[in-house]
Amino acid sequence: MTEGDQSAAVPAWVDATQIPDVSARGIASHVAALVRSGELSLGEVLPPVRVLAGELRVSPSTISTAWGLLKKRGLLTGTGKAGVKVASATGLIRGLEMYATVPGVNDLRLLYPDGELLPALDQALVGAAHQKNLNEYYDSAILPALQRAIEPSWPTRSEAFAVANGGADAVWSVLQSISVPGDRILVESPTQPQLLSLMVELGLTIVPIPYGVDGLDPRAFRDALATRPAAIFFQPRAQVPTGLASSRERIAALAGMIRGPHHPLIMEYDDLGDLARGRHHSFAEHAPDHTVIIRSYEKSYGPDLRLAVIGAPENVIRNAHAQIRLTRQWTSRILQAALAWMLEDPTTAASLSAARSTYAMRLTALTAQLRARGIPIATEDGFCVWVPVISESAAAEELSGLGILVMRGASSFAGAAGPHIRVATSRLPVDAAPRLAELIAAAAGRVEDS
Predict the structure, then answer these.
(1) Shortest CA distance to 197 belongs to which of 357, 20, 75?
(2) How far apart are alpha carbons 223 and 190 in whole angstroms?
């Protein structure tokens, strides 16, 4: 159904007598309840705005405003010309499968580090617990000892630093401090589902930019800059889910396209940090006053450290830290000091080097087996393999029936894209790769019954 299809039958739920409040917010609330109850199902196209407005005896702008509210919550997607449709019954976590552990099933959906490969925390925590002024209220953006420890390995010189409670918290804090609902943000496509949901929650308009070999697509990037985005977001290396990286040449070319008085904030999210094999080439080499680098230490040093560091111009750090202070006060100095200790500890460095090699072997084992079976795999680094398939649903269901759970690729895109599945390798034994590749290759070629 499109905006011009005025003759389409009006569904039963479009009944003014059942909607006591026909304001934009009242209509949005009513439709949200229908979506969450299942009366309006995933993918269902809603009647045209003018048809609904006529039936409910309101102006078309009232319906458009209601749809805007529901899109911000992730319940609807689409436009008037192509048709507005139901995106999810769960709103902002649309497209994400349930993540409960299933006994007896090989769950390859989430990119968890292997606990056996994480560095030991005991000595780091003992020392951190004896630091000066512990349990005093705290206002600094980062523990000085942690800043000294991270600076030698930081991709470029950053003017200031702040600590957040993990990578997603860091991304949220920066975006919350520099944007308003409705702002456009250029986002690598595909990307991490959790971060897409976070951006939708903030009310941002996502402009997807294809991410391929060497990084963001130059033509799409140049065209999207004309929309005057508030920010640009991408992963410079071990990109999730593709496992690709941005080359120095591509970064330089993209930086040269950003001209004129409007300069969006460039956000680089380094998820694996020291576990990534590729180099982090940064926009900061060309635009230091407009570049934010976020490095997560969760997968490399331990999820329970809940730490990510933001490096950025002073004004960006000041505003992001204000958001952190407002909502979370500060990140534990015990955890900051523990990370600082580990960053300077030779034994921890050796442990990380061994972990990096092991993760690489696991990834390579599966990618090599898939390529040998004719599956075109571009993945080179990271915790997962990005597998092209004929049908995501058919492939995921086929593998699920064999006791293997994978992530459907649709959750990694803001819009339509080619079908893929994401397969985690971070905990996958090397000797399991041949059999798994055989099953994936078979499932990848299955076409869903029409």
Answers:
(1) 75
(2) 18
- Do residues 386 and 422 lie in contact, with contact meaning Cβ atoms separated by under 8 Å? yes
- CA–CA distance, 224 with 347 (Å, rounded to integer): 46
Beta strands in 177-273 (DSSP E): 184-189, 205-212, 215-216, 231-234, 265-270
Task: Provide CB contacts within 8 A for 31, sequence distance 6+.
Answer: 40, 46, 66, 70, 75, 76
Q: How many CB atoms lie within 10 A of CB 88?
A: 21
Distance CA 440, CA 396 (A): 9
Q: Strand, coil or helix: what is 77?
A: strand
Residues 138-191: pLDDT tens digits?
Answer: 778 999 999 999 999 999 999 999 999 999 999 999 999 999 888 999 999 999
pLDDT at 243: 98
Task: Tell me if 48 sits within 8 A of 14, measured CB to CB.
Answer: no
Spatial separation of the C-alpha atoms in residues 225 and 184, rounded to whole Å: 10
In sequence order, what are the beta bridge partners of 211? Answer: 216
d(CA 33, CA 436) in angstroms, rounded, equals: 41
Cis (ω within 30 of 0) for the bond into 288?
no
Amino acid at 359: Y
What are the residues facing 407 on neighbouring strands? 422
Question: What is the chain's Cα-based Rg?
Answer: 24
What dihedral do alpha carbons 430, 308, 201, 236 form, nearest 10°? -60
- For residue 119, is the peptide bond before it cis, meaning its omega torsion is within 30 degrees of 0? no
Using CA atoms, how far apart are residues 211 and 235, in angstroms rounded to an integer?
9
DSSP H helices in 103-143: 122-128
Task: Please answer whether residues 146 and 340 qualify as being in contact, where contact means their C-beta atoms are separated by less than 8 angstroms.
Answer: yes
Query: Rounded to two decimals, what is the model's pTM?
Result: 0.80
Annotate 68-84 with b (16+ C-beta within 10 A) or e (fewer): ebbbbbbbbbbebeebb
Half-sphere exposure of 143 (CA within 13 A, CB side): 25
Give the whole-angstrom CA distance, residue 130 versus residue 200. Answer: 42
How far are the Cα atoms of 239, 421, 424, 447 from residue 379, in angstroms, in the given order? 9, 13, 12, 24
Domains of the chain as residue ranges with CATH: 16-93 (1.10.10.10), 106-111+348-444 (3.90.1150.10), 134-344 (3.40.640.10)
Q: Measure the CA–CA gap between 387 and 147, rounded to whole angstroms.
A: 38
pLDDT (tens digit per residue) in 5-39:
444 578 888 887 888 788 888 888 888 888 877 88
Q: At what angle do helices 60-72 and 49-56 cross, to 10 degrees?
A: 110
Query: How far from chain centre, in Å, is Cα 286?
Result: 25
**CA 251 to CA 417: how far, in whole Å?**
24
State the amino acid at position 398 in one-letter form: E
